[in-house]
């Protein structure tokens, strides 16, 4: 009895199967839009950790060129002289691809939503634009052999992307009507002050790191010619200023303070206060123990969490109601 010939799937059938899987993926993304926004925020914070590992281990030139890792090779070339630096740097580049996929997914689920305002929909493109900008800055960093100003800019761009990603997630649960304050005018002003002070804290943090032994170059003890101890003290002073402003916001939004609508701001402020205490403890411990790499990297991730938390407090002090147009679209759907 002769064996039957193997079944041959026509090219058209394979194409339909691939198209079906692709359509299923797109449909899942549309159904899981909030999960996509959460994943984007988590990845924006996580890449701060992987990028910090590159800087702290002086692996910024682990791959000698960009966008390739080595001339003619997109992946590391392993040989007897290969060090761990190349894998740290290449791992961070792979993380960028994952983040890019998430950013594309964000744009896909946000931009086509005609029930939302154009401003919110344009915000959906920010993560992708930020990833592209970071890739360009990262490439320039490698080609110019890590100029300190651009290294700081690389980190600050990440902080801006974390804040924008948190804003996008927060706005996804709001309407598109005019902004309505949930706290009194003075408290609202204090949330603006807190956000501005946090911006200064982040800038000073990058300068402090650039002045210290973990500036990204293992051949010199610093990349910025300033006193690292002085920078650390100035940085700490601004952190304390931030904590004071936050404490006043919490006091003014406590229960019985006169505005029941202030509860979201108070809850967000409590979370931010806990993050600030933890971040401050890490900062003092790392200074007292000689700046171990693990603690310094944890401090970098903590900075990203503070950027997200501060943005959350700022947004929780006001809300946006659903507009009549969006309500009609939602009702029709």
Tell me about this structure.
This protein is an all-alpha fold. It has two domains: 153 residues, no CATH class; 157 residues, no CATH class. The protein has eleven helices and two strands; from the N terminus they run H-H-H-H-H-H-E-H-H-H-H-E-H. A two-stranded antiparallel sheet has the order 1-2. The C terminus is likely disordered.
Count the beta strands.
Answer: 2
How confident overall, as mean pLDDT? 84
Low-confidence stretches: 325-333
Largest sheet: 2 strands, antiparallel
SSE layout and pairings?
Layout: H1 11-31, H2 33-56, H3 84-110, H4 118-123, H5 126-143, H6 148-172, E1 179-181, H7 185-211, H8 228-252, H9 263-288, H10 293-316, E2 318-320, H11 324-332
Antiparallel strand pairs: 1-2
Write a compact overview of the structure shown.
The chain has helices at residues 11-31, 33-56, 84-110, 118-123, 126-143, 148-172, 185-211, 228-252, 263-288, 293-316, 324-332, and strands at 179-181, 318-320.
Brief descriptors of the model:
2 domains; mainly alpha; 333 residues; two-stranded antiparallel ribbon; 11 helices; 70% helix
